[in-house]
């Protein structure tokens, strides 16, 4: 199956301008038609027309956001004339027919109490044609025929306007105006179906394709159910005030001013609909965690342009409103502020819920939408007697839903705070916005200020803010690689970051304090210990860890303001794993996971670290794992996150280390620690093996359990057979590995197994316990694994290998090819690409 079209560069979608222009034209046409009908129809007829057209707006929005987007995805992904494309087209046709019947029944039942037979019949016909029209629209969207799609949308409105004016002039009233919906949709339905006639006429696929078709059909239904469910609730949310009030009051003409002003207040909804239509295919094609820049750009445009429109509408003077509204409606202008707020909140919900329609899951927005619809409907029934109370109730309900859904979208797309990317332009326009309110008593001056605000918003939308300077990374790295006992995680952090710095990135790594730690720049990477002045408490590793996490949780906004990063990177670290960094900043966040620490540390300290780890995992949308099994665990624990496996690397110097003076000793290299590294297990196993082998044990490294380990060696009577080499760095580290007959890795658990990988690169075999992470590295061709914790088996294998140099040489010779792919340059490039994808950067700055 051929891949879909390549995504457009960030910030640009092919055909977006044409589609947006068409959507704006459609919105203006609908708006102008509604204003014309305010003057042409009697108040009682306009009340019926407005209530029924609100229902049709829900039907049209639902039809436009389900079938077209589902079909567009299938059309874009499938080869022309393929069986899967034919199946998708036919399935969506049947889906549209079924939904048209269902919505017609529900819609007609909803309006029957206050609408006569003519409006009800027109509503039923419109439901059928609107749904069928959506199939052709989805097909054109999938083929990227945006100009044709935009022309059909404009043509539909043009036909509707002509038919509306003709039928109203003929005296058909609300029934004629509503029947024009069906007429306009029928014309564009015919044009749309003509575009997909080849797929409709194609022959059935071969039987070999049936299994694939069944699978694609199942996925299509699931996708349609998710989109349709969300869109249905959204439509109910922002139309239920009119529908409920009209039902309670029996179509009273007293609601006409409310409905007429609502048309004006919903102008931002047209913009949000256009933005949602444009950004959805990009989100769907990119997948969870990607495509975020396009959504952030759309949200920024909504804040700026939609906000300017909302303020302008809310402050509109009566004299200006009187140019487009009859005099009897301008007396109700006090309704404009709450209705404008409700319209802007509804537009926000329309745009934000696109994330969940494209990626899922639906529940984070379905639950608040459903609750709001139920509570809002009950509140509207109570408030319907007073239009001001009804308007403020609608504003409160929709605003609450907008806040909740925006907060949940922020977890999926980092950097989408309430003013993401728009704070500067909005701040610049704030004085003019305030002027609108002050100048409301002076219509001429207000008009000039309104034009200034709208022009400024248009300029801000067209501009794309880009901060000058290099790409900036704020890395919450936890552990300084210079600290005694530092592990492989800090090595990875430095090896990747120094390569990013060589590419021109500005990298700052925040680490926990340690005795003698100072802010420094190493290989172009700036290390900052925080808190900077912990005093004697820095000697305690646990205390410094807790202090570091306290700084991250309480001062991350300050760090972000100071360093202004394009991306924030959180290294998962003991004892919590993650402290929910995505909840603490609006900047894009990537989590780097080498191990999930909470269960081990909870047993060690008897504290509920697991609850913090679960919440931290749930907060992330992009996670980088160092191994396949860890990646699968992360996907299982956070299915909504995008998980990418990028392993640790091996320094190129390891492959060229000299083995000319290979000895007959065994080597332990790493952190002198017992809880995870199992140094105590090695010493006990070596004590069992020592009487049967002449190989001494060399131990290189430093760490918190160095004194305890030395004491244990003495207690076991091994003081003269165990040689303590201290910390070894640089090329000497690889010469040390290459000079041993066997490298022992006795870890109880491992994040990756960097020492094992480096040993294999030098051509030295590895003896390890059979645990995850090491299992993938230490295969039977390059080393030996024994059951975890089995000291007798470890001792026996150590004895056998040290007494068989030929076998050790054969195993060691197979090592370098198995880790040749662990190249730091390649790994840094993959991590750099992940950063740029999440932050939406285009190219290297």
From TrEMBL:
Residue ranges occupied by any Glycosyl transferase family domain in the UniProt entry: 666-815
Positions of transmembrane segments: 16-42, 48-71, 92-114, 120-140, 152-172, 227-248, 260-283, 303-325, 331-356, 365-383, 389-407, 419-438, 444-461
Sorted UniProt keywords: Glycosyltransferase, Membrane, Transferase, Transmembrane, Transmembrane helix
Pfam families hit by this protein: Glyco_transf_4, Glycos_transf_1
Domain Glycosyltransferase subfamily 4-like N-terminal: 487-652
Keyword Lipid metabolism found: no
Organism superkingdom: Bacteria
Protein name according to UniProt: D-inositol 3-phosphate glycosyltransferase
């Amino acid at each position: 199956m051929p891949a879909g079209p390549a995504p457009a560069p960030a910030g640009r979608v092919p055909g977006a301008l044409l589609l947006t222009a068409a959507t704006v034209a459609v919105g203006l046409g609908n708006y102008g038609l509604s204003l014309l009908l305010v003057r042409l129809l009697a108040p009682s007829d306009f009340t019926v027309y407005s209530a029924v057209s609100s229902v049709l707006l829900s039907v049209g929005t639902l039809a436009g956001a389900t079938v077209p987007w589902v079909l567009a995805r299938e059309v874009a992904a499938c080869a022309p004339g393929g069986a899967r494309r034919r199946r998708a087209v036919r399935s969506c046709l049947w889906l549209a027919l079924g939904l048209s019947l269902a919505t017609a029944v529900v819609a007609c039942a909803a309006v029957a109490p206050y609408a006569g037979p003519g409006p009800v019949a027109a509503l039923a016909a419109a439901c059928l044609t609107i749904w069928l029209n959506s199939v052709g629209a989805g097909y054109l969207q999938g083929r990227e025929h945006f100009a044709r799609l935009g022309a059909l949308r404009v043509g539909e409105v043009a036909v509707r306007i002509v038919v509306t004016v003709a039928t109203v002039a003929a005296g058909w009233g609300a029934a004629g105006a509503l029947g024009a919906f069906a007429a306009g949709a029928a014309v564009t339905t015919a044009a749309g179906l003509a575009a997909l006639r080849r797929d409709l006429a194609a022959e059935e696929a071969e039987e070999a394709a049936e299994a694939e078709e069944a699978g694609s059909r199942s996925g299509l239904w699931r996708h349609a159910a998710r989109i349709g469910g969300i869109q249905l609730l959204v439509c109910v949310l922002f139309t239920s005030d009119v529908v409920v009030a009209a039902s309670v009051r029996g179509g009273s003409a007293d609601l006409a001013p409310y409905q007429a002003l609502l048309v004006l207040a919903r102008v931002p909804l047209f913009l949000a609909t256009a933005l949602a239509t444009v950004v959805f295919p990009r989100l769907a094609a990119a997948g969870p965690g990607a495509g975020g820049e396009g959504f952030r750009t759309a949200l920024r445009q909504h804040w700026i342009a939609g906000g300017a429109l909302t303020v302008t509408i809310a402050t509109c003077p009566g004299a200006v409103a009187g140019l487009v509204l009859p005099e009897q409606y301008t007396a109700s202008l006090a309704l404009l502020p709450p209705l404008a707020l409700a319209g802007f909140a509804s537009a926000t919900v329309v745009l934000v819920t696109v994330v969940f329609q494209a990626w899922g899951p639906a529940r984070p927005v379905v639950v608040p939408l459903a609750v709001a619809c139920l509570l809002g409907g009950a509140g509207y029934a109570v408030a319907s007697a007073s239009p001001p109370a009804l308007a403020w109730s609608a504003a409160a309900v929709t605003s609450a839903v907008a806040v909740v859904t925006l907060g949940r979208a922020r977890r999926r797309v980092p950097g989408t705070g309430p003013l993401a990317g728009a704070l500067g332009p909005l701040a610049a326009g704030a004085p003019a916005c305030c002027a609108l309110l002050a100048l409301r008593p002076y219509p001429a001056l207000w008009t000039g200020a309104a034009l200034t605000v709208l022009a400024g918003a248009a300029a801000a939308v067209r501009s794309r803010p880009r901060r000058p300077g290099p790409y900036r990374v704020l890395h919450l790295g936890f552990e300084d690689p210079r600290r005694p006992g530092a592990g492989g995680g800090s090595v990875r952090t430095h090896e990747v970051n120094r390569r990013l710095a060589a590419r021109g990135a500005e990298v700052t790594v925040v680490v926990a304090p340690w005795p003698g730690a100072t802010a420094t720049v190493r290989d172009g990477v700036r290390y900052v210990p925080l808190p900077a002045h912990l005093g004697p408490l820095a000697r305690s590793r646990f205390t410094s860890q807790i202090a570091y996490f306290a700084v991250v949780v309480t001062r991350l906004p300050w760090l972000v303001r100071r360093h202004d990063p394009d991306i924030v990177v959180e290294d998962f670290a003991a004892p919590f794993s993650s402290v929910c960094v995505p909840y603490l900043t609006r900047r894009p966040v990537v989590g780097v996971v080498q191990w999930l620490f909470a269960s081990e540390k909870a047993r060690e300290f008897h504290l509920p670290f697991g609850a913090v780890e679960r919440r931290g995992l749930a907060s992330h949308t992009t996670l980088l794992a160092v191994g396949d099994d860890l990646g699968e665990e992360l996907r299982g624990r956070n299915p909504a996150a995008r998980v990418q496996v990028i392993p640790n690397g091996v320094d190129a110097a390891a492959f060229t280390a000299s083995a000319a003076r290979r000895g007959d000793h065994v080597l332990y290299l790493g952190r002198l620690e017992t809880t995870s590294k199992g140094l105590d297990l090695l010493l006990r196993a070596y004590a069992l093996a020592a009487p049967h082998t002449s190989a001494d044990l060399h131990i290189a490294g430093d760490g918190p359990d160095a004194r305890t380990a030395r004491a244990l060696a003495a207690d076991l009577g091994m003081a003269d057979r165990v040689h303590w080499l201290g910390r070894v760095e640089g090329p000497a580290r690889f010469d040390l590995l290459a000079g041993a007959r066997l490298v022992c890795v006795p870890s109880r658990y491992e994040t990756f197994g960097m020492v094992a990988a480096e040993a294999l690169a030098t051509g030295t075999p590895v003896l390890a316990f059979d645990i995850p992470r090491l299992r993938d590295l230490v295969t039977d061709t390059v080393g030996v694994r024994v059951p975890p914790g089995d000291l007798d088996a470890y001792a026996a294998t150590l004895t056998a290998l040290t007494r068989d140099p030929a076998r050790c040489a054969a195993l060691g010779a197979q090592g370098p090819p198995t880790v040749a792919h662990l190249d730091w340059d390649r790994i840094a490039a993959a991590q750099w690409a992940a950063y740029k994808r999440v932050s939406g950067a285009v190219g290297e700055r």
